[in-house]
């Protein structure tokens, strides 16, 4: 599996990740033999059960499994039990987070492409230790045809196949041509979207007070949630299959079929 990781890290080096982001090997050994890879957004107990059912020996995730170090290994804690289950079944876990967000042709290009944005450029510079000025998180671009804030919000629901989203706007009927997008939790970067002339900013996890600040600045924001980053599952699966074919790697690649969004709209 080291071959796949080395090839991926040419596409999205770990050093492009934001400072302190725990990317890379999460559990296991990179020199362990691998036959089947499961691609997922999150690593949760149900994903581990899916990997076991698939006979996968490698999980490639966008969100790191260990955002916070374990304080103990009490197996009554579901997170610790998940680690134990992974070790018991000899499953290696790797995470690619903000390095994938910043990579050209990575997460934010996939999101911009899904939204139909054209003439896209980066939104904010990466803080990764080796990132060049061209390595950027988020994208901003133009729609082929103008629409309205409200219509674009409904379009986002369809594009991302979600049952609900949050619209932050005092002008839902205002025209929209220029759109900024940043996958995950990007609400703190709304000033950059404003500065670059965005009519609408698409990002997740907007907090109450930040929402008020966005309204005060006259920016319309669509919060479709953090889970829209699941777009990475199909995209990474396609990449990995292509690389496996090009390099004659004896692996198969599966896409997780589970929805790990913790929220349900009623």
Give a structural overview.
Keywords: Metal-binding. Belongs to the GTP cyclohydrolase I type 2/NIF3 family. Homohexamer. One of its GO terms (molecular function) is metal ion binding. By secondary structure, the protein is of the alpha/beta class. It folds into two domains: 2-99 and 230-255, Udp-n-acetylmuramoylalanyl-d-glutamate--2,6- Diaminopimelate Ligase, Chain: A, domain 1, CATH 3.40.1390; 104-224, Udp-n-acetylmuramoylalanyl-d-glutamate--2,6- Diaminopimelate Ligase, Chain: A, domain 1 (3-Layer(aba) Sandwich), CATH 3.40.1390. The chain is built from nine helices and eleven strands. Helix 8 links the parallel strand 9 (200-204) and strand 10 (220-223). The longest helix has 17 residues, at 231-247.
Task: Provide keyphrases for this structure.
Udp-n-acetylmuramoylalanyl-d-glutamate--2,6- Diaminopimelate Ligase, Chain: A, domain 1, metal-binding, alpha/beta, 33% helix, 266 residues, five-stranded mixed β-sheet, six-stranded mixed β-sheet
């Amino acid at each position: 599996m080291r071959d796949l990781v080395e090839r991926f890290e040419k596409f999205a080096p770990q050093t492009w990740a934001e400072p302190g982001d725990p990317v890379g090997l999460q559990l296991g050994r990179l020199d362990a033999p691998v036959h089947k890879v499961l691609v997922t957004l999150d690593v949760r107990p149900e994903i581990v059960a899916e990997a076991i059912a698939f006979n996968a020996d490698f999980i490639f995730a966008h969100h790191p499994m260990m955002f916070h170090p374990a304080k103990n290994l009490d197996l009554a804690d579901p997170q610790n039990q998940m680690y134990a289950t992974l070790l018991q079944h000899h499953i290696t876990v790797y995470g690619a987070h903000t390095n994938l967000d910043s990579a050209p042709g990575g997460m934010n290009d996939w999101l911009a492409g899904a939204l139909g944005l054209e003439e896209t450029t980066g939104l904010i510079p990466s803080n990764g230790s080796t990132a060049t000025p061209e390595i950027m998180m988020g994208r901003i671009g133009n729609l082929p045809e103008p629409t309205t804030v409200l219509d674009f919000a409904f379009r986002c629901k369809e594009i991302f196949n979600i049952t609900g989203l949050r619209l932050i706007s005092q002008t839902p009927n205002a025209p929209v041509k220029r759109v900024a997008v940043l996958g995950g939790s990007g609400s703190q970067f709304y000033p950059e979207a404003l500065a670059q002339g965005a009519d609408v900013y698409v990002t997740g996890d907007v907090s109450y007070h930040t929402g008020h600040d966005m309204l005060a600045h006259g920016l319309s924001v669509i919060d479709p949630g953090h889970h829209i980053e699941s777009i990475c599952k199909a995209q990474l699966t396609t990449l990995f299959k292509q690389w496996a074919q090009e390099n004659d790697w004896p692996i198969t690649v599966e896409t997780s079929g589970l929805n790990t969004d913790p929220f349900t709209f009623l």
